[in-house]
Amino acid sequence: MADNENKVAAGALMLVAGGIIGAGLALLFAPQSGKKTRKDISRYAKKVKHKADDVVDDFADTVSDLVDTVGEKAADILDKGKDMAYDAKKDLLKAIEEGQSRLEKQRAKLSKIIG
Question: Which among 37, 36, 11, 10 is positioned nearest to 23, based on CA atoms?
Answer without folding.
Answer: 37
